[in-house]
Amino acid sequence: MGRRIIRTALLSLGAGAIASKSAAVSESNRGQLRRQARQTSSSSQQQQQQGRLTESNKSPPDAIDEKSRRFFKPASHEELYLDMRELILELNVDMSMSTTMAPEPAPVQTSTPSIDCANAETCANRLLEQIFQVSERVGTTEAQSDQMSPQSKARDWIIEECDAVTPIEYCGETQLILNEQRYALAVMYFSLGGDEWNVGSNPGPDKSAGPGKWLSGLNYCDWGSEITSANGSYDQMVCDEFGNVLYLNLQSNNMVGEIPPEIGVLVYMESYISFFNAQSGPIPTTLGLLKLLETFDVESNNMEGDLFQPEYIGLDGLTNIVNFRASINNFGGTIPSDIGLWTRLQNLWFAENEITGTIPSEVGYLVDMEAFLFYTNQISGTIPTEIGNLDKLYWLDMESNQIDGTIPEELYSNLALETLVLKNNSLTGTISELVGNLNMLTSFWVSFNEITGTIPTGFNNLLSLEELELQYNLLTGVIPEEFGNLESIAFISAENNMLTGTIPSGLFSDNLPGLRILYLNNNRLTGTVPENYGRSPRLQDLWINDNFLTGTLPSITEGEFLFLEELLLQNNELTGAVDVSLCRILNTTGGNLGRLDADCQPPAGGGPPQITCNCCTTCYE
Ligand SMILES: *[C@@H]1O[C@H](CO)[C@@H](O)[C@H](O)[C@H]1NC(C)=O
Ligand SMILES: *[C@@H]1O[C@H](CO)[C@@H](O)[C@H](O)[C@H]1NC(C)=O
Ligand SMILES: *[C@@H]1O[C@H](CO)[C@@H](O)[C@H](O)[C@H]1NC(C)=O
Predict the structure, then answer these.
(1) Smallest-distance ligand from the CA of 354
(2) Which of 102, 349, 589, 609 is deepest in the core (most CB within 10 A)?
(3) Is residue 519 exposed (0-12), middle (13-18) or buried (19+ Cβ within 10 Å)?
(4) CA-CA distance, 273 to 270, in Å (whole number)?
(5) Residue 117 pLDDT
């Protein structure tokens, strides 16, 4: 059958002209998140894609079953309703497909529908007809029979607009696409507890409410406020010049409830941001209808169900997606190999969920990926070598999963890496010397694994490295002298390994001006405490307990260890006296040292203690 594609045109909707906002939505900061990401402002290049229609989108009128038809057919309007059917067929407008088409740049060719535009009954029926089409398309026809459903509330609300002082326009075929977005937004309002929203709520609703109130009589593009907060400013809703919704930013808005399938009506949407809310339920599969979607962000909600569903991850799915952020929810399921089809992806975040299965090798196709975060899930298997293809990856965090195997050599070819977190898995094998190639690294966390071998000297290239976590592994060998080159280092944690040799004096110098934390306890270190240890300018915690250190603790000079808070020495073979110069930096005498622990307890069997200490806070035998 020949069909005319409904396109958008410059038609006004309700009162007020459609505002054209070109400003990109600034995705505001999220200070509470455990880790900060660089915000990628998704440029809103409108992809003039040719949409694909599938057979299932078509709903010939004779396929409508009586049950669902009832809800759209006010008894007294039965004939009108049927007339509408005829009319629509006559116009050869396939409304069910109208919005599954991708936007077309060209202006419309409009034909004048032969309906009485002044007739409110015609208006109601035309809207009902359209809502029915929408409900069929997104699978919510059932909800239309429940008078309390968000769909029913939205339907009743929009039908009332036929009798408004400025009635809703329903005549032009280009209105169809605008009216169905209006309806879909109303469903979202009712589904997500709109009356309680921090911004945009409009209980009643009050049709005469001004801009910034949802469900007002205004053009819906004026429903969204411009929000300025300490975290930046953004528009709650942005439309294009035709009135199509491009961005919704409903972050931190006290939204409670499920995202309705009607989100799939907003086919021009490029960005749906709704982190820090209480959205529940699954991601509607109709998300797959949003072919232009670049950003989907539901972080920190209560959502559940399969995170990656075939309806939106396949070839017909969100192939334009750039940012997919779903961390801190209760999502389950596995990562399908079709993830490799999301080739524009830059941010894939699903940390703190319950995702199982393995990381498919197809992630290697995601060559634009910048941040891949999936810490705290139940992912097993190995790190695929294909991850080495991700040349733009600067942040990889897979902490607290069940990943095993070795760290693939290919990972060390991701030269943009700044944060690499492999902590708390079951990784075996060694850390390659190639780690020295990753000279952008600021954080390298490989703690709580079963890593063997020695600490590579390659680390000495990592002049940006700030945090090094090696603790709780099976590392052997010495602490490289080269650590003295790590000029940006602030945090070294290497406790609970099997390290041998001495503590390099290079760790305590002006070369490492920012070193605050040094945990070397529970190893097999020998030799004496370096004479220069007090010269570490900012050192706060020095834990060297539970080793085989010998000799006497060196004294310090005035002005040294000004920031030292914890010095743990117990369970070593140190002897002699703790010098009074250390007692002077205790927090009881004006310094900062609050913990000074040593083997200063006389043995139970009698005799002198191993160490004499007049000011230690805890004495061990
Ligand atoms: C900024 O963001 C934080 C974290 O989301 C939030 O707690 C805080 O209320 C926000 N501040 C403002 C003024 O919106
Ligand atoms: C490691 O992850 C498990 C869950 O997989 C968690 O229970 C445990 O607390 C984590 N340990 C550390 C040290 O982070
Ligand atoms: C000294 O530090 C210890 C341990 O941090 C703390 O419990 C104590 O309150 C501090 N005392 C003073 C006087 O600051």
Answers:
(1) 2
(2) 349
(3) buried
(4) 10
(5) 64
- Alpha carbons within 13 angstroms on the beta-carbon side of residue 389 total 13
Q: 494: helix, coil or strand?
A: coil
Residues 197 and 353: their CA atoms lie apart, in Å, by 26
Which residue intervals of 379-475 are DSSP H helices?
A: none
What is the per-residue pLDDT for 118?
A: 65
d(CA 291, CA 270): 9
- Tell me which of 352, 377, 424 to substitute to probe ligand 2's pocket, judged by most ligand atoms within 8 Å of the beta carbon: 424
Q: Which atom of ligand 1 is nearest to the CA of 251?
A: 5
Interatomic CA distance for residues 472 and 238, integer angstroms: 50
Helix or strand holding residue 157 (H, E): helix 150-160
Residues in Cβ contact with 63 at an 8 Å cutoff, skipping those fewer than 6 apart? none
Which residues share a beta bridge with 566? 541, 595
pTM recorded for the entire structure: 0.81
Residue among 466, 406, 397 at smallest CA distance from 430: 406
The answer, yes or no, to whether residue 33 has pLDDT greater than 80, is no
Give the confidence band of 405 by pLDDT, cuts at 50, 70, 90: very high
| Element containing residue 181 per DSSP (H, E) | helix 173-191
Ligand 1 center–CA 151 separation, angstroms: 32
272-325 tens-digit pLDDT: 999 999 999 999 999 999 999 999 999 999 999 999 999 999 898 999 999 999
Q: What is the DSSP string of 54-119?
A: -GGG---GGG--HHHHHTT--GGGHHHHHHHHHHHHHHTB-HHHHTTSPP-SSPP------S-TT-
- Ligand 2 centroid to residue 472 C-alpha, Å: 12
